[in-house]
Amino acid sequence: MAGFTPAQSIATKSIVSIQANAEPVSSVLDRLARATGATFSYNPDQIESTRTVTFRFTNMPLGSIISSLFPEDKFGIRYSGKQIVIYRRAENMIHEEFVSAPVLQQNKENSIPDTVFIVQTQLQKDTLRLTDTVTRFDTVYIMRTIMREAPVSTGDIFSDQSRLSESQNGVLLWTCGITATTDFAMPHFRPVSASEALVTAYRENYSGGAFSGGLAFDLLAGYKSWIFRSGIGYTTLASRLDYLKTDISGGYFRHDTLDAYYAIAAGDTTWFYVTDSTYLPVDAHSYRIESMLRHHYIEIPVEVRYTWPLGRGLVFAGGGFSVSFATGNKGWLITDSSQGVVSASSADFSPVVLSGIIGTGMLWPLNRAIILEGGFRYKTQLNQVIRNFPVEIRYSALGIKVGITFRF
Question: Is 222 exposed, middle or buried, given 0-12, 13-18 or 19+ CB atoms closer than 10 A?
Fold first, then answer.
């Protein structure tokens, strides 16, 4: 077989399963490089990199796949470790024309310029004059003309830049990444067994705007235009408490009995009381509580996204749900008790909270291995945060999500 030597066995023994449908040869070689770790070197014009191929290979050696794509009667293949060089044989080379620069002639008053600038060059040297043992050289650039079936396009110029749409070819693609989310959380309150005054106190004294968010490790599987996402992360939802409580006593007359006696007349007993009234002045004590009510969770999301190509990247929209396991709560809760508030650690918090998720964003490749992600996410809790509590508390959060993803 053309180009195969014993030194080639390391690169060609890699077993690969791959399929393509009207896909450019250059894209197929990129996928083979990612799958095997091999490095391909070639001239795009010589191998006709824009030529499309359709095939399906299952558990075949890399060398057999390359031989099928590049027949030995037209192409040669050389191997050096994991470096694979593909070239067109001399008898099949594309016609080239060379335009030589004019030759300088001695004893001529006005010499002809001897330098021609072109896009692709070959370097040649010719001797102009020899004096004793000193040789002077002149550099001549020769234009190289290659006949192409199609004009040069931006696809040829930027062929080294990856497009995420190239991976939407029916092959399952796994990626992993790290994402961070900054949320604007807003608490919502409804009465369960509480008075309307207590619910109003919650609505007036708790507010959103406290820092919320989280960090997650993601695992994604892409198939055609769909992306399935899961993983595990740590998240915090918080609200701000600004509560002013005033205890008032006094403000009334206290009646005291100083003495009591009775008299008996005609068989009747009559009681007489001596009393005194004392006015108790108003005594008011106020105290203010400013703190954060925080809820901490370990979260496992499950999402489905649909993608559309945009430039070199992808735009996505999707939704799903998350299962959050409570790991701790810190802050104060308003009650009807005389103390006014109780510690959140004493409440019966739900150990598992379900949330619905929707979001949109964009994926953009930095290179063939690293992808940036950015977008917006809205999350709302589907069950209450605290069990057996007179006020039902739930959170919703609108956030900005950014991350980085790595291709396997």
Answer: buried
Question: Model confidence over 190-241: pLDDT tens digits?
Answer: 999 888 888 999 999 999 877 899 999 999 999 999 999 999 999 999 999 9
229, 206 contact by CB (below 8 A):
no
Structural fold of domain 164-247+285-407: Porin (2.40.160)
Distance in angstroms (rounded) separating the CA atoms of residues 60 and 131: 64
Say whether 159 sits in a helix, a strand or coil. Answer: coil
CB 334, CB 365: distance < 8 Å? no
State the first-to-last Cα distance of the chain, in angstroms, to the nearest integer: 32
> What's the pTM?
0.54
268-303, pLDDT tens digit by residue?
777 777 776 766 666 666 668 888 999 999 999 999
Q: How many CB atoms lie within 10 A of CB 135?
A: 11
Cite the residue boundaries of each domain of the chain with CATH code 3.55.50.30. Answer: 6-91
Q: Which amino acid is at 398?
A: L
State the DSSP code for 349: B
